[in-house]
Design goal:
Layout: E1 6-14, E2 19-27, E3 30-36, E4 39-46, H1 51-61, E5 71-78, E6 84-93, H2 95-107, H3 121-128, E7 141-142, H4 143-155, H5 158-163, E8 167-172, E9 178-184, H6 187-200, E10 210-213, H7 219-228, E11 232-235, H8 241-250, E12 253-259, E13 262-267, E14 272-273
Parallel strand pairs: 3-6, 7-14, 10-11, 11-12
Antiparallel strand pairs: 1-2, 1-13, 3-4, 5-6, 8-9, 8-10, 12-13
Helix pairs in contact: 6-7, 7-8
């Protein structure tokens, strides 16, 4: 059975008058291993569905293929037991295309480190947590302070005011004061910039600040926070299913849909005073 594009999660919905358990739906985020002629090529994160189209489009953008004429069969792998592996797909090239792409494939380092046919979200979390200790529950922050974060970060987005096309990431202290911020067209780049600036100032680990982003929270953003030891990650939009699972595994607090006076707690609610 193919993975679902959505995952049900238990959350705590916080408003000015109350905090109550609720059920939410998160966009599924799972790895897809793309193989070319049976050899591992890359692992990319995606929402399950249209995997054949995704693989074809990715190989076109990477110049592995030039047109549909270069494609043979595209199919999901099967394990040794004969079961389907919905997160592994093999793209067979035509003989001419395979010969033409041989140099590119040989010169590119495969992102995946295994040829196993059972890539799954659980194993991905274990890989992401390698060498990372779960965070300590060191401090708490009030729900009212969390609600003010979007406006505080927005006030620091000077380039966004001119262009309207940038993401932002900000680090805030326990009182909700902005410590540092960065803007970039890529949300992951903005996070790297704001954490990297603290690294260059030799201020890591960042156990006394929270990270707020003006985008959705994917697993990469949670992972970057865990590596830098940031205990709380909050966003104006939704987290993905893998981001939620990774936050729970790493002992981080993950907040989403921080808008107006409300937000959702997806992980680590003990750090939030409601």
């Amino acid at each position: 059975m193919p993975p679902e594009p959505r995952v049900g999660v238990e959350i705590t919905r916080v408003s000015p008058s109350r905090a109550e358990p609720a059920r939410d739906v998160a966009a599924a985020e799972e790895p897809l291993e793309i193989r070319v002629d049976g050899a591992p090529f890359v692992v990319i994160m995606r929402t399950p569905g249209a995997d054949r189209e995704l693989a074809a489009g990715f190989l076109l953008s990477e110049r592995v293929i030039a047109s549909a004429d270069d494609l043979g069969a595209i199919r999901h792998c099967t394990s040794e037991s004969g079961e389907g592996a919905p997160n592994v797909i093999d793209v067979r090239l035509t003989a001419q295309a395979s010969q033409r792409a041989g140099g590119l494939l040989a010169g590119r380092r495969a992102v995946t480190a295994t040829s196993a046919c059972g890539v799954c979200g659980r194993r991905t979390i274990e890989d992401l947590m390698t060498g990372i200790q779960p965070l300590r529950d060191a401090w708490r922050i009030g729900a009212g302070i969390v609600a003010r974060l979007p406006q505080a970060l927005r006030a620091a987005q000077t380039v966004f005011d001119e262009t309207g096309g940038l993401h932002a990431a900000g680090l805030f202290d326990v009182e909700g004061r902005l410590v540092a911020s960065a803007e970039d067209v890529g949300r992951h780049n903005a996070v790297d910039k704001v954490i990297g600036a603290q690294l260059l100032r030799e201020r890591l680990p960042l156990e006394d600040v929270l990270l707020f982003v003006s985008s959705r929270a994917s697993y990469e953003i949670v992972q970057k926070a865990l590596v830098a030891r940031v205990p709380i990650v909050a966003s104006v939009s939704a987290p993905t299913s893998l981001a939620i699972a990774l936050a729970r595994e790493g002992g981080a607090t993950l907040l989403g849909f921080v808008r107006g006076e409300t937000f959702n707690i997806y992980a680590g609610g003990g750090r939030i005073e409601v």
